[in-house]
Amino acid sequence: MPESVLLLSGGLDSATLAYTHRPDLTVTVDYGQCCADAEIQASAQIADQLNLEHEVIEVDCENLGAGTMAGQQETDLGDAPEWWPYRNQLVVTLVAMKVVRRGADRLLVGAVADDQSHADGEAEFFELMDSLLSFQEGDLGVVAPAIDRTTEEFVCEVNPPESLLGWTHSCTASNTACGECRSCKKRQRVLTRVY
Fold it and tell me: Which keywords belong to this entry (predicted)?
């Protein structure tokens, strides 16, 4: 039986997708990012609240990272301090490797219009990843259902319970929300406007 799988980071976008799509499985990836523990904890709580199956993949790529998410100095290649080279390609590939054996046919990703300042956050990137995975054995496709909306638009449209989004973690610098990084400020701004 084909399954849908959600890449659940524990942030607002993927939590809202979990609420709207109720996938058969949610997967969080610890690839060595400094905020992995908080992302895993937030994702587990979100999955539990929605009665969704949740798994964690651990692959240590910390020494390959750059920027604040890796606890490293940022590079001049990315346009943001949290830029990590090829991160979305890595994470999508790792989840695909895990779930293709289950017979999953759709991998849902919580990318939104706000993410399109990075090449691997653009709609074209996810279309290319979909083509690449579909080309290979397993017939697994990649879908970014909210790619044409900002986080604020998506959350306002869906209006998930505040109790669900209260579990989210968006900080890219720490397991404890720093309140200063772009992601923390965005989360606070969206929650304040929506609720």
Answer: ATP-binding, Ligase, Metal-binding, Nucleotide-binding, Plasmid, Zinc
* Kind and range of the H or E run holding 5: strand 3-7
Closest listed residue to residue 14, CA positions, set 93, 98, 112, 92: 112
Distance of CA 147 to the CA centre of its chain: 12
Strands 104-109 and 3-7: parallel
- The kind and range of the H/E element at 57 are strand 54-58
Domain residue extents for the chain: 3-194
Do residues 65 and 91 make contact, with C-beta atoms less than 8 angstroms apart? Answer: no
DSSP 97-141: HHHGGGTEEEEEE---GGGGGSGGGSHHHHHHHHHHHHHSTT--E
The per-residue pLDDT string of the chain (195 residues; one tens digit each, 9 = 90 and over) reads: 669 999 999 999 999 999 999 999 999 999 999 999 999 999 999 999 999 999 999 999 988 887 777 777 777 777 777 777 889 999 999 999 999 999 999 999 999 999 888 899 999 999 999 999 999 989 899 999 999 999 999 999 999 999 999 999 999 999 999 999 999 999 999 999 988
Does domain 3-194 sit in CATH 3.40.720.10? no
**How is residue 11 written in tokens?**
């942030």
DSSP at 32: S
Residue with tokens 């890595």: 90
